[in-house]
Design brief:
Keywords: Cell outer membrane, Membrane, Transmembrane, Transmembrane beta strand, Transport. GO terms for molecular function: efflux transmembrane transporter activity; porin activity. The chain is an alpha+beta fold and about 400 residues long. The protein is about 70% helix and about 15% strand. It has one domain: Outer membrane efflux proteins (OEP), CATH 1.20.1600. It is built from 10 helices and 4 strands, in the order H-H-E-H-E-H-H-H-H-E-E-H-H-H.
Length: about 400
Amino acid sequence: MDLALKQNLDLQIANIETATRQQDHAIARSELLPNASFVAHDTVTRYNTKAELGVQPSIIPHDVGPFQTIHIGATFSTPVFDLTLIRQYQESGHRLLATRADEQTIREETVLLAVSGYMAHLRALASITAAQSRMELAERLAHQADDLLGDGVASKIDRSRAQVRLREEQQRLIDAQRDADTTLYALKRVLNIPDSQQIEFVDRQDFFSTPPVDFSDSLPIALVQRPELHSLSEGLKVAEFAHKAAEANSLPKLTFGGFWDEQGQTFNTATPGYQYRVTLGIPIFTGGRLSAERKRTALVEQQTRKQLSQERNRITEQVRDGRVELQAALHQVDLGRQEVQLANEEVSLSQGRFQSGVTDNIEVIVAQDSLARANDAEIGALFRYNIARAQLARAVGTVERAYSH
């Protein structure tokens, strides 16, 4: 799980998105702070008097210049009152929190994918073990049929049945090995590691365990823990502040700025110059743009509220379905284990009857079929239980905490 959280590409993309939102927040903050710049320019100017004034007074030369002007100094500006910038800064802060919640959602989904891939591979390994055991049993029964044929107790068709059954078990072993390879490749893709890298599975027996799971308070925990709800809650605040920013666009804005520089025709003759200005801006007519912006942001806010309510209902359904699925899977595991026990007993009894010559090996073949189905049922039930357990943890919002070390 630690490797998946470190190397999964989806999670790396989510980390980059969070870093981008952090810079957006810093940019929004910079709009509220004073700005200053250093400016230096050297200009050579020549004017046509008539072109500039529209007339040519007789006392003014036809043209003026060329003359040189030099300006070296600083310009500055700062908002004194701009409620729109304040609301946009607050909006960017909640947008950052929403992105962090989205990142946590990706982490939860990554862990669930890794757990699912891991359990799928353990299921394939368990199928290999069961197939190998059945193949060894089929080999013993084939040898038994040969021996009984030599003793005159069995017939050639008994030996043929045993050989056919052996080939079937060999084919099932090949299929199980294929499933193990494909599930391993899928797991490596989730972990983002090269195909050539070897993975050692040291806890194969955990697949067969069914530890008790207490999710009695799962729904209240889910409504607090699920990152999707955190993201939508922050998204609602983003919409609220966006609406407030749209309303603030109709208010006056006051800024203070100016410059201070050395100016003159040459560096030696330059003298200090400055300008300080206070600017008051009041929107009078915008063609309905401000009203449309207010209405649009209000609609976005209403939409986000509906989405938040819808997400709560969806999470409630997921938790309740997860409880039912986990309980059903646990019962299925119990039945699967009983079925394997009974199937092994059936194989043993039918083998004894065939050995004593009471019947042919049709009963043995049928018992082998029952054992194969029982193995598949038990392994499938265990896989269902492990996946249901992980999905319920995901529904509650604690899958990373449950499976990461």
